[in-house]
Amino acid sequence: MRECIAIRHLEFEDLGYWQETLQEAGFHVRHIDAPKAAPGSIAKLDPDLLVVLGAPLGANDEADYPFLGEELALLRHRLERDLPTLGICLGAQLMARAAGAKVAEGHRAEIGWKPLRLTELAMQTPLAHLDGVPVFHWHSDVFDLPEHCLPLASTDDCPNQAMIAGRNLLGVQFHPEVTAQGLETWYVGHYRALRDPRAPGVQALREQAERHAPRLREAGERLLRDWLAGLQW
Q1: Count of H helices and E strands in the chain?
Q2: 165 — pLDDT class (breaks 50, 70, 90)
Q3: What CATH number should be reported for the domain whose range is 2-229?
Q4: Each residue of 173-186: b (16+ CB within 10 Å) or e?
Q5: Which residues are within 8 A (CB) of 131 and not within 5 positions of it... i.e. 6 or more apart?
Q6: Domain boundaries, the chain
Q7: Is 29 helix (H, G, I), strand (E, B) or coil?
Q8: pLDDT value at residue 221
């Protein structure tokens, strides 16, 4: 059985329903909580598949959160060797930075449900399953594409929503892993962010999740299964 390690920064920002999808695909899945990890331990991780999950931190914040520096070192190692690696939100930003691209604050936070604009190239990848499907967004930073990546998806507030390098490296700015029930903990844990008058209200987010999350799960399961099937070990 292959091992999948998911680096988690907040306990409620986990793999969501993707954990079940990974287990069905034959992976033994475990989470590593980055803030609790022993110094030096993250950089030494060597799973068959690495997933780096989201957080309200920034990819440039390693001075305050040293574990981010370890994650960047680990990602550089994996990207250089084309080892199966998946990044979600902060995870994708860290992947971009590890590959030499810039990560910076966007012109405004993107919170809520909306579909992606997929490029023609994206329609030839597992991302095609998300065509026309509203996905969940919760981020304020954005990343530039590394030199070896091509544009795949965007929204009005975020020009780069996904990047793929070969078959083994996938980073997505949005959250394909969430469920309506799982997001209830986000509304509590990210309470302060939702107090911003520019942010959508909890009731609006809850209604959108009830409407869109089932369709996202169906499409997201297909995306992940197809990506896993194409990995080169």
Answers
A1: 6, 10
A2: confident
A3: 3.40.50.880
A4: bbbbbbebebbeeb
A5: 118, 123
A6: 2-229
A7: strand
A8: 98
CA 124 to chain centre: 20
* Token pair 């999740």: residue: 209
Give CA–CA dist 225/223, Å, rounded. Answer: 6
| Crossing angle between the packed helical segments 66-81 and 90-98, to the nearest 10 degrees | 60
Between strands 49-52 and 85-88, the pairing is parallel
pTM for the predicted model, two decimal places = 0.96
Instruction: Please check the confidence at residue 147 and state whether its pLDDT lies above 90.
Output: no
- pLDDT above 90 (res 32): yes
Q: Distance between CA atoms of 155 and 229, rounded to whole angstroms? A: 28
Cβ of 189: how many Cβ atoms within 10 Å? 14
pLDDT at 116 (0 to 100): 98
Handedness of CA 108, 113, 117, 121 (dihedral sign): positive
Q: Residue 107: which pLDDT band, with cuts at 50, 70 and 90?
A: confident
Q: Do residues 116 and 153 lie in contact, with contact meaning Cβ atoms separated by under 8 Å?
A: yes
Residues 6+ apart with CB under 8 A from 106: 139, 140, 141, 142, 157, 158
